[in-house]
Fold these 3 entries.
Entry 1:
Amino acid sequence: MPVEWNESARTWTLSGGDVSYVLHRDGQDRLLHLYWGPRLPGDALRYEPSDYHSFASFDLPVSVLPSEIPVCGTGWFGTPAVGIRDEKGAEVVDLKVVSAEILPGKPLPDGLPAVYTEADTEADSLAFCLEDAVSGLQVTAVYSVFSDSGAVTRRLILKNAGNAPLMVTSLLSASVPLWQGNLDILHLNGAWARERRPVRVPACEGEFRISSARGASGHEENPFLALCERGADEFSGQVWSVNLVYSGSFLAFCRTDIFGHARLSIGMNPDVFSWTLDPGESLTSPEAVMVFSASGLNGMSQVYHRLYRDRLVRGTWRDRSRPILLNSWESAYFDFDENRLLEIARKAAEIGAELFVLDDGWFGKRNSDNCSLGDWTVNPEKIPSGLKGLSDQVHDLGLQFGLWFEPEMVSPDSDLYRAHPDWCLHVEGRPRTQARQQLILDLSRPEVQDYIIDAVSGVLSSSGIDYVKWDMNRNMTEAFSVSLPPERRKETQHRYMLGLYRVLEAVTSAFPQVLFESCSGGGGRFDPGMLYYMPQTWTSDDTDAVERLKLQYGTSIVYPASAMGAHVSAVPNHQTGRTVPLKMRGDVALGGNFGFELDPGKFSPEELEETRKMVLRVKELRDLTRTGTFWRLLSPFAGHITAWAFVSQDQRKVLLCAYSVLSVPNSAPVRVRLRGLKEDAWYETEDGRRFLGAALLYQGITLPLRGDFDSFVCVLKSV
Ligand code: DGJ
């Protein structure tokens, strides 16, 4: 039974895979958290108040109570999951459980991205209704547990069932007391061109917070936070984690209480969010995905990978091999015309690429990044045949044709801005802060959303486009919509996200055959919210292969390889100036959605030949990298050798990838132990060497790496 109610203990136990999550309705109808960890039978736990808090004379019981939905003003002193300001300016809530309902499958929120089920047997759900009698606030807490993995999702729906407006000042999607301490915090930190580096620090007294107030999930932090047992590593130990299915500003934190016990929370960032609920109105929080693993970080990541690959990503491309693309950005930047593009496309076809992507610079009068965003009509001086003409010629080469857009933006120097100067985020009477010489369209406004839907759809329906790169290259300033009254202006960022999701739903569902890839200055919006609409994301603007080891490794903590754009670029690399051999560049890129970010016309005949072979190999391996179980084996953050592997679901095929960055003199050969194989199966390498699964698992395989920037990619098949 995935959701069990135990009448005598007044507990609900949600179970799936090897995991249980247990809640309790206490004698005062408060909803308490009892447990999240290895699977337990539904009658295993009893709530004993003395087990859960001490009554030191000064402490209010509520401040240390394992509340499942901590609220403001009644004794909880941290950031509440639900904070409300009433008409009188008071911030007090007291939630009592009124009812609970067990539901088959997983209900979906309206207008927000979420993981889903395809059959009711895949998950079960539990919806609690809680009420604050004085204000009339109703909170519905919707939990779902996935039967195979034990991943739990939660979202809150707030409804004003009272007679006066209520302002939501705090809204957390998940807030879980773990009732233990001595844990480490893991988060994914970064910056432009070096996103999602795993950082692990001990959870200490007080509070550890990560957040974004940028109006995007951001390059700096990912909406993900995990707590790990001190000894937990990639392969063993307990890990609890939360990830927000949202692409805007967020807050995640670990708060340690007076007993040293940690609480893990994630949700809206109250610095840039509030929301007024008039009587009768509702607001739904983004969904949090909560993953527990008793088998270390790889175990946790594998749950996210599978769930996101199979039940977050949607549409035609979810289960299909992704085309090998060549993107014009690093080969031409803004400096191209139709002939030059066709030259590059011709070479792309010669090396076996399947999709040619025209990046920035094709529209308005854009020859640098200082104009024309918003004017989504082709520049006839650069492309005299028009987009349809160009796309036909690219199709004639046997390639698909893709196009870059940055639809959420407007350049001050554009026809759109001249026609609608008030359509951007701004505050009357204040300068409009520009970044990359552009402003952000106010997507909280329906007329702006409609403009974007029409402009992008117009191009897609008339020009033979097979792929779209949807970019977003700056963060929000003056993020207060002029269309909202003053008391509602702090709703702008969230209204923008709801508007963006409406636009993405409209465009992607109108063009189901088009492959969409999201991008935000590289990986500034690499989050589950975007993956719900677009199955892949451009991982980073840093295309250097050595840096990509860290990028792909760090990104894989949460996101599957099938979500990562991974391209071979020219040397010296444009971001780092480093020269890495073509072989290693290819061997790194084959760990994601493979492509090129270079002009193959500049290749020597030998390089062309090597690239052709590389492409053929990627075509053979791409289904395995898309659907296989991904194992991180050796970390690029720990030493000069990185290794990872993809193991097919039937455990019969393994792709082992290993890389050496700088060689170390007088060092022993490095052996790596494989994971996820059958002990008693024999595996054979492409050069005919045979290994017993148990030997690969427990003794490992020696990596024949030599010298700087060397790589070893090897397929083993069971015989
Ligand atoms: C940022 C993206 O990450 C790049 O790949 C490229 O598309 C540029 N924008 C174009 O302006």
Entry 2:
Amino acid sequence: MDAGLTPERTEGMTKRMAGRISRRKFGQLLGAAAGAAALPGMPKATIAQAEPEITNAPRRFPEGFLWGSATASYQVEGAVHEDGRGPSIWDTFSHTPGKTHDGDTGDVADDHYHRYKEDIGLMSDLGLTTYRFSIAWSRIFPQGVGARNPKGFDFYDRMLDTLLEAKITPYCTLYHWDLPQALEDKGGWQSRDTAKAFADYAGVVAEHLSDRVKYFMTVNELRSYVNAGYESGIHAPGLKLDRKGVAQVAHYAVLGHGLAVEAIRAHAKPGTKVGFADNPQAATPVIETPEHIAAAERAMREENAMYGNVIFEGRYTDAYLKKLGPDAPHFTPEEMKAIGSPLDFLGLNVYTGDFVRADESSPVGYAMVKRPASSPHMYSDWLYVAPESLYWAPKITANIWKLKEIYITENGCSSADVLTPDGHVYDSDRIMYLRNYMTQLHRAVSEGVPVKGYFLWSLLDNFEWADGYLKRFGITYVDFKTQKRTPKLSSSYYKEVIRRNGLV
Ligand code: BG6
């Protein structure tokens, strides 16, 4: 017997069942009444008969809005020992027992290194107009600095040429967490030298690729690789530094970004655009009233004081420095100037939102709302459903940081995907998630928030960091034993969004 089946619970269940049955019966009665009202011989009107082109006409995105998908080198490429690639911290970390689900590694991942043509074929089938990928630093500089690996660029050259033939515009991320292990051995992001090495690498890549790539993002999600890598230790390199140590790592990470911006500007072809992909705490007003909206704006600055805010304002907020006190990072005016280098665009990775309320009693004027235990989330337990965040994150950041060009560089979710015997994945929950988020994105764009494109995470199921191959974020199912790709139902959904350039 179910030990949890107490008399109270049984009584509650009975009451709920009774309620449900009566509601169902009520529905049947309504259906019967509607049927009776239809004229004999006339087909009953159905929603499917509505003309989608007409009903959705006002819900289109602006002409030229970019529809893309995103991936990252270590998550898809595999081929970790090929063509002179050096090891990265994720090779080391994933091969350390107990660090990833089931000891999964990115040794093979999606084997994209060898199957990129097939994957670009998938993009073409979807109708993608853009694709965001990242470069594995240790393929270009196996030791992070010093000798370049001439074969390092060959893969990206081949991949880019195929992409451009398919008329898909590349967006390139220079750092999506796979730091060369040789640099970690010298201190990694705890060392200022890593920031300088990153800038040198960024300049070399920009010089080589800017004839074909017009959009570069320096880094992906500072918060993730600083806090998960150096504070909680759940990601590579797996360290647990104290507050002072983490603040200094965060400073060198934003410095690396700033120096890389300068290096790209110095070496890339004229017209190259530079930005970064950020995952701010997406402060979302808990209720859409002026006081809660103002609170969310304040929270967006303060909660992101060490990442997006210092980059766009060129200084740490007083509240941030006060809160850290003696643990505040060491910095110089020259460093702050580099960190605040002007950018052409901001990439926003938005998966979830953090609700904020006005709070006059707090010195910062707001309070973060603690999530009730019942808050709905997707298959990853961190991925709370908050579609409004895709309206508020671009709207607030555009407003407070005076932005002219924003991309949603990642949005998507994990689902408990099952490949059915008929060979399909019916990921209706992912479609629900995407539809709700895109509706909010459309709301923002319709109001003139300058979002120019959207990149769905992800094209393929892939190596999901500490979750290994357990959590699937792709709109294409990958059988990791055979590498067979099967587009999921969400892929058909996204294809229709792109075809209409509008909500579906
Ligand atoms: C984003 C990262 O934050 O989240 C991606 O940029 C990642 O690389 C995605 O795959 C999902 O994260 P996780 O930790 O659940 O695998």
Entry 3:
Amino acid sequence: MDDSLKMLFDEQTIERKVAELAAKISHDYAGKEVVLVCILKGAALFAADLCRRLTVPLALEFVHVSSYGSATVASRTITVKKDIDADIRGKNVLLADGIIDTGNTMDFLLKRYRERGPASLKVAVLLDKRSRRSVDVPLDYRGFEIPDEFVVGYGMDRGEKHRNLPYIAAVRT
Ligand code: IMP
Ligand code: MG
């Protein structure tokens, strides 16, 4: 591994946690249909692994949001570059992201989709950088809580690098 990176969660640890989350979600939504919304780009790997393990009927949707600013500072201006295609009125919607930091992105999307009248709207995140939260967001399914370190891998990037790493690492500063 790159000297600038410090291992946080290896492939096996991630796999076990995703399986655990998938089991809970499958149990909670038993008998229902789910619209899983993958928040691009960061949730691409998490959503891909999660959806394969869900046993409920599922539609996969993608929303591409971006915030401007430097690699490590999340800007407060969120723009939707590509929205989901599906009409979610009356549907059970589950938003998936790799990491929740300040909570602004998730808060923005929850407000946006709540207006469309889904039957339910929940959140699944793999990583929770809780100490950084500035907006209170209910996390229905959460993988790991992490300290305030910048992480890469398993979909998450620093300046578009490292998304493809199968593990999650902190960037040494
Ligand atoms: P928010 O501050 O909760 O709105 O997080 C915004 C977005 O910033 C997340 O969806 C990630 O794409 C990105 N982000 C936040 N923290 C990290 C990190 O440690 N590594 C990589 N991306 C991050
Ligand atoms: Mg990023």
